[in-house]
Design a protein that fits this description.
The chain has 269 residues and is α+β, with helices and mostly antiparallel strands. It contains eight helices and eleven strands. The strands form two sheets. The chain has a six-stranded antiparallel sheet with strand order 1-3-4-5-6-9, with helices on one face. A five-stranded antiparallel sheet has the order 2-11-10-7-8.
Length: 269
C-alpha cells in the first residue's frame, strides 16, 4: 500500500484525558492509502486503541497497537483483501505487544483494545478486539456495528442478564479479548446490523455499502460508557462534524469523565 498525503473523506479526531485519569492511554491513527493495483479507488484506514496496564504500560501497548497495525497494512495490503488483512494485522500487533512485555518487567501484562475501520471506495470493513467500538450513523439513527469482547456482552448474548441489569454492573469492564495476550486474540470480523443475525451473517456484512450522509464513528469506552447510542446520533444530527465531536467529548466529561475519551469521526460524501 502507498500512503497518501490526505484522506479523501472528511475526518475529525479528538482525544481527551478525561477528568479522572492522570495519563491518556488511548491512541489513534488515520491512514489515507491507495493500492497500486487499483489506484483509482482511495482507501481510508482508521485505527483506535485503548491501552491497559500499570506504570504507563497502557500507553506503550496502545501506541504499539496503532503503529504495528499500520505497519502491517503498508507492508501486506497490496495482496490481501480487507478482512484477512485486518485480521492478520491485529494478530501481528498483539504478538509484538506480548513480546515487548515479556522483555520488559515494568510492562508485564500490558495490553490494548483495538478497533479498525477500512473504507475502500464506498465499502466498509471492520475488525476489533476488546470493547472499543465502531458505529454507523445513518438517517438520524445510530447502529453499533462492532461487538464488545466483554463479560457483559457475553452475558447479554446468552440471556444471563437483561439490559437493565447490565447498567452499572460490577463486571462491566471485564474484557475477554485484548492485544498483547499470551494466546493470539480472536480478532472479530463480525459487522453486526441486527441483534438477530447469526455470526455467519454478521461476517457476510463485511463490505457494507455506505451512502452519502452516513457517518462512521470509532470510539473508546470512555465515550460509549457515558454517552448512549441515541445521544450520539442526536448530536451528529444537530451539529456540524467538529462541533458534534466536541459535544460528545464534553458530554462524557460532564458525566464524570472517568476514562480517556477518544473518537474518530468520518463523513461519507
Amino acid at each position: 500500500m502507498i500512503r497518501l498525503p490526505r484522506p479523501h473523506l472528511p475526518v475529525v479526531t479528538l482525544s481527551d484525558r478525561g477528568r479522572q485519569r492522570r495519563n491518556n492511554e488511548d491512541r489513534f491513527r488515520v491512514c489515507p492509502l491507495t493500492n497500486p493495483h487499483t489506484p483509482e479507488i482511495p482507501v481510508l484506514l482508521a485505527i483506535l486503541a485503548d491501552g491497559m496496564g500499570g506504570h504507563q504500560a497502557g500507553e506503550v501497548a496502545a501506541e504499539l497497537a496503532v503503529t504495528k497495525v499500520e505497519e502491517f497494512v503498508l507492508d501486506h495490503g497490496d495482496d490481501l483483501s480487507p478482512p484477512p488483512l485486518l485480521f492478520e494485522a491485529l494478530r501481528y500487533a498483539s504478538q509484538i505487544i506480548y513480546e515487548q512485555a515479556q522483555r520488559n518487567p515494568d510492562q508485564s501484562g500490558m495490553g490494548a483494545t483495538c478497533t479498525c475501520a477500512w473504507i475502500q471506495g464506498e465499502r466498509l470493513y471492520i475488525a476489533n478486539v476488546g470493547d472499543s467500538r465502531v458505529y454507523l450513523i445513518r438517517n438520524g439513527q445510530s447502529q453499533r456495528l462492532s461487538v464488545d469482547h466483554t463479560w457483559i456482552q457475553e452475558a447479554l448474548d446468552n440471556g444471563w442478564i437483561t439490559q437493565e441489569e447490565a447498567l452499572n454492573h460490577p463486571q462491566a469492564h471485564m474484557i475477554r479479548q485484548f492485544l498483547g495476550s499470551a494466546t493470539p486474540p480472536e480478532v472479530d470480523l463480525r459487522l453486526r446490523l441486527s441483534a438477530q443475525e447469526s455470526d455467519l451473517q454478521a461476517r457476510a456484512n463485511q463490505g457494507l455499502c455506505l451512502k452519502p450522509g452516513d457517518f462512521i464513528l470509532l470510539c473508546s469506552d470512555g465515550l460509549s460508557d457515558l454517552v448512549d447510542d441515541e445521544e450520539i446520533a442526536r448530536l451528529l444530527n444537530l451539529h456540524p462534524m467538529e462541533q458534534a465531536a466536541r459535544s460528545l467529548v464534553d458530554l462524557a466529561n460532564q458525566r464524570g469523565g472517568y476514562d480517556n475519551i477518544t473518537l474518530i469521526l468520518i463523513s461519507i460524501l
